Each structure stands twice: as structure tokens, then as C-alpha cells.
Amino acid sequence: MASIVPQTASPGSEVFVTRHGAFVVRSDLGYFLQTLDFCSGQDLKIQPLHPACRGKDHYVGDPSSSTIYLLHQDSFCQVTDLNSEPPSDVFPLHPSCRGADQYAFCEGYFFIFFLSRGVVLCVADLATGALIKEIHLEPTLLNGLYYFGADAEHLACFRMDEEQRLCGTCFATTAGHKESFAIHPDVVSFLPGGLSLIYGAAFGQWQCLKLLSNATDLPMPSSYAISRKVGYSQLELGLKAHVDESVSPEFLTVSLLQRQFALPAVYGGLGLQTEQEEWEEAAEEEEPLRVILQPRQKLYWWHYCLGLGKTPILYCRSLKITRNPSPPTNIPLPPAQV
């Protein structure tokens, strides 16, 4: 079963909460999702990131205010709106606060996760390292994919449960109590790798378009018209109903699909680059064919398509001819750039 891509493997992808709601940032796409909360998906809206807010390593929200901290390399700044240009004031990160896997904010403190070392630090100020101390979380809380401050008193994380479903876990830093919560499908879809959890893992396969055969003992000249689809068979994402007027729903959907197909198989992708393919609405095309079939010969015509679950989505231009019913073994698309 596939997983979403963890934040550690997808810099610039982030989840956080402020007093204005719950957010998912996709810096790679240039958009962010905002909703009332991750469970209900109410008041969900997808908006463009301001160009100056793109490309950050971490986005950390304060659940009690409007403040969002943008961390990049060894510095950070504060904003209240991801649609607007950040202020010019940039602060250095204290050496003890640098290079962490993830960051979160609640209780007036920053929580800094060094997951590979199993260490979590708590600090009052990212610039000075004031009141820094190590806190101890139970081991099961150190396998989260995304961490954030859920409210003024609780942290939370997204993780895969025992049945390999994405869920949220809310927990206090000083007690063992924790509580699980569901994540709305539209929120899951917007996360890196999330389409595979909702629609099924990506697949790529050769489909047989036509079988040409000559059952006689004589060569047989023939003319054919091979009909096939080329292009994108639109996927009806629930997200499309919630985009800002400045966002093209189809462009957003195509961008999400291209990223999904580019991911490795462990995240429900194929590791293939598809930007060069025809992403216009799928249309039927005819390929004229003149061929001389030899006695008792069979020819199989194939085209390549990609999809999610069991649903074909992208019909590629690549055609292949074989003399046996087994599909071709080559993949006609380049590997994704890692």
C-alpha cells in the first residue's frame, strides 16, 4: 500500500494551523489549500502562493494567531498571509534550531523534530535559542509524516495507521493521552502522493488497439485505419470545485497528476516524466496503415496509457507493433527528474 510523501522527502510541502483555519502548502505547485479544519474540509479553498513565499523549506503556523513562520536554510521570517510578499525583516536561526526534519508551534514554543535521531527540542525563540530543552515523546509519535501545532495546547501529526490509511493524531507534549482523527479526502488529495490513496496507485500499461491477421497461405496487402485516443481523459477531482478564481481547475488537476506520476512506486507513482505528453482533452485519432501481411501472420498494435487505480487517464502518442500477444516491455516515457 502506498503512502503520502513525508515532509522530509518533499521540502516546501507542509501542513499547519492558524486561527484562520488549517492549511496545506504545495510550494512545488505554487498553491496552498485552506480549510476550516482537516477533518471536515469545510470552507475549503485553493489559492496561489505569492512567488516570494514559494521555495521555503518549512512553513510553521501559530494556532493562536495569524502568524506563519517561513524557514529557509539558516534564516526565517514572519508573515500573516501567503498571498502577499513577505516583509524584508529576516532573522537568523540559532545554531541549535538549524537543520531539523520538521518544526511545529504550540503553547508559545517551537518544537523542533530531529526524527532521524529521535530527538525533539522545545525552544521559546528560534533566533536566540532561549529556554531550549529536550522533550521526550513516546516512540509511536516519532513516526509522523507531517507535524504541526493543532491548537494552543496540542501538537498533531499525519501518519499511516496499522491498516495503511492516512490519519491524524493529536497529542499533548506532557502527557501520554493522544487522539486520532480522520482527514478529509480533498485534503488527502492535495498532499504529495495523496491521489494514490484516494484513487489508487498509478499504473502504466500497453493496451492492444488492433489485431491484424492473415489466415491464408498467401501474402495479403491491406490498408487499415488504426483508431486510438490521444490526450488526457479528465479526472473529476473534488478539489476542482474549491479553487480560487485566479486558479485554473484543469491546470491544477494536471499539475497534481503530473507530480503523482513522477513519484516513485512507494508513494503510488511511476517515476515517469509526463509533461511532454498531450495534456489536452483526449480525442480520437486515426493512423493510416498500409501493410503486407505474410501467410499466417498476426500483428498486434499497442498504445501506452497511464492511470490511477483502474482508470486510464493519459493516453500517450507512443505506438508499438509486436508479432505476439504479449505487450511490449519497454516504457516509452523518460524517468522523472529527481
UniProtKB/TrEMBL annotation:
Instruction: Name the domain of life this protein comes from.
Output: Eukaryota
* UniProt name for this protein: Uncharacterized protein
Q: What is the lineage of its organism?
A: Eukaryota, Metazoa, Chordata, Craniata, Vertebrata
